Amino acid sequence: MPPDAPVNAVCAMGVEAWGVRRRAPHVRVVRVGIGGRPPRELPGIVISAGLCGGLLPEQTPGTVVIPTEVVDERGVTHACDPSVVAALSKAARYLRLALTGGSLISTSGMVTGPERGRWAGRGHVAVDMESAAAAESAQRFGVLRVILDTPSRELSSAWAEPARAIRQPSNWSEAIWLGVNAPRYALRVGAILEAAFLGNIDPEV
Q: For residue 4, what are the contacts with CB-CB under 8 A and spacing of at least 6?
């Protein structure tokens, strides 16, 4: 779908912003920090883009999540633009990536352990910390996330503050895993954006 309006990718972390800039250089990146909020009323299409946590036991890291709705902890629901969802989904399928849709819950803190099951039981498939705020800043809105951690591949909740987590030796094995996979999945996000809105297909994702 050639964009009929500017495309903004709202990213929390530096690695997410890097992945978009590397693979989709024509997309404007708005970096907000973990749990951050973008400027209000961004012009054009706003995509909450980056990594997320999976909530279902059968999910695997690397699965693409393109939800049809985002819900915050108060239960406020934001519908994703159907044309944006369709363009992103078509690109992910073309790239032969595992894909799931449904509802994404946007929380104020990192979700691990039993909390995953609690949100899954309410009908959500994945979790992040930024999409609900991004939805409030957009007229046309979508979400493109890649699952990083899952119920069977947990991460320490310390990673909600990466600079502090990396100083703890108990987190170093996870840091190595993240160092390999977070950039890899961030590039996947960028490749899907490029394919969805500019028609440039890069199969090496």
A: none
Q: Which of 204, 5, 9, 198 is nearest to 87 (CA)?
A: 198
Burial of 114 (0-12, 13-18, 19+ CB in 10 A): exposed
- Torsion sign over Cα 201, 30, 17, 53: negative
The confidence score (pLDDT) of residue 3 equals 61
The per-residue pLDDT for range 69-84, each reduced to its tens digit, is: 999 999 999 999 999 9
Q: Structure pTM?
A: 0.90
Under 8 Å between Cβ of 141 and 80: yes
Q: Buried b vs exposed e over 175-203: b needs ≥16 C-beta within 10 Å?
A: beebeebbebbbbbbbbbbbbbbbeeeee
What homologous superfamily does CATH list for 7-198? Nucleoside phosphorylase domain (3.40.50.1580)
Q: How far apart are CA 164 and CA 147, in angstroms?
A: 22
Are the beta carbons of 127 and 52 closer than 8 angstroms?
yes
Residue 161's pLDDT is what?
77
